[in-house]
Amino acid sequence: RASKMADDLSAVQLMFSDFPLVVKKTEAQGRYVEAARDLEAGEVVMRASPFAAAVTDHLKTKICSFCYSHAHEKRLPYSCAKCSEVWYCSTACREPGIVSHSQYECNYFKRMRVGKSKLDSDAFTELRLLISIVGRMIYLKQQESKLANQMSSLNIHTSSSSDGSDTNAPKTERAHTENDISLLVSNEESMNQIAREYVAEILEVFDRVMDKAIKKVYPHFTRADIMQIVSQQRCNRFGLWSKLDKCLGVALSPASSFFNHSCIPNCTHEQEGQVVIIRTVYPVPKGSELCISYIKLDQPTNSRIEELHWSYHFPCSCPRCRDETGKYDAWLNLFYCEGPKKCVNLMTFSETEPDMLVCKNCGLSKPFDKSIEPPFALSSSSSSSSSSSSSSSSSSSSSSS
User: Fold this and answer.
1) Where are the alpha helices (DSSP H) in 20-70?
2) How far apart are the C-alpha atoms of 361 and 76, rounded to whole Å?
3) What one-character DSSP code corresponds to residue 278?
4) Cβ neighbour number for residue 378 with a 10 Å cutoff
5) Spatial separation of the C-alpha atoms in residues 58 and 51, rounded to whole Å
6) Is-above-0.90 flag for pTM?
7) Most C-beta atoms within 10 A of its C-beta, which of 50, 334, 358, 376?
């Protein structure tokens, strides 16, 4: 068991080799991310490209499937001529975007809307992401098999690093491999009956579209394997949001999925197109756990707990959710952007003016109110408490990485 944990941890750590992060794992807490050195306020600690991403279904003709720019009033000028399910804002986006789309999605997207379906836009968005994930897994598995056959014919033995990794991945972290999804925790056992019925409707269409392709490459795949992937993407996906707080799509970035959730996080995440960027909110010392929020933070406690349970299948038990004094809310209010765009990401301390907070989204700055005491020591990791990548413990919640 200890050997399995070490092997698992080594595989995950490969995703973080270019960043100041260390992945840790305990039986009680599960996997989590620590600062490998002292981190400055506002420092970027990770840039993570997605394994798969999908635009919001009812906005598909207005959102570029490569850069995720949003055309508010009219259709984008370029689309896939074969399926008409993905659109692009320019030839610069269409040329690289259509390559990966053709490899992972197009043949399946063409069949996605054949026949009657009860799915609404949200369900179709989830279906698009699920098809993209499994489609890419199939492609990478096929590439791995081709490489093995070529090496065999040349009597060359491949090393463990020759794993069919995808060289189309943006140069943010090491290239994705088919095994990246298997490293994610699913929390399937916590999925309630309503969620299972919702997923079952999505899988009716998914099976019709992808069953033959899956059986050809993964002949031993069962419904349990598909449900595992469904739950993994539900627990670990990120929303891709516009600066006006519109959900443009969803993405599954395995590396960023190892950051646990907290309703009082010490990191915030933003995006550049499909790439998820994680940066510190304030200075974080070496050895501190790094946490982000999976949801909008300016919600009442009951609303946050309900959303986390529905969307990520774990009960949050972070200090803010247990607090009845309001001190955590008062502290977090300091970091909300007060600009007209009502940005959803937290403001961070300025790198050049330590008494100022800056919104990386809209550029607004404001002085930091030092009269409000933090509910924890800034040199402590107690701000990062609620886990979604681990087993439950007294200060962390159940796992989603």
Assistant:
1) none
2) 24
3) E
4) 14
5) 22
6) no
7) 50
CA 140 – CA 136 distance, rounded (Å): 6
Residue 122: alpha-carbon gap to chain centroid: 17
Q: How far is CA 241 from CA 76, 273, 276, 306, 345, in A?
A: 18, 9, 11, 21, 10
Q: Are 23 and 9 in contact (CB under 8 A)?
A: yes
Residues 6+ away with beta carbon under 8 Å from 8: 25, 183
CA dist 385 and 207 (Å) reads 38
Long-range contacts (CB closer than 8 Å, 24 or more residues apart) made by 315-318: 315/392, 315/397, 315/398, 316/261, 316/263, 316/386, 316/397, 317/385, 317/386, 317/392, 317/394, 317/395, 317/396, 317/397, 318/261, 318/262, 318/263, 318/264, 318/385, 318/386, 318/395, 318/397
Tens of pLDDT, residues 77-134: 999 999 999 999 999 999 999 999 999 999 999 999 988 788 999 999 999 999 999 9
pLDDT of 243 reads 72
CA 335 → CA 44, 155, 216, 274, 399, distances in Å? 17, 59, 51, 25, 27
**Integer angstrom CA distances of residue 164 from 155, 160, 168:** 18, 10, 12
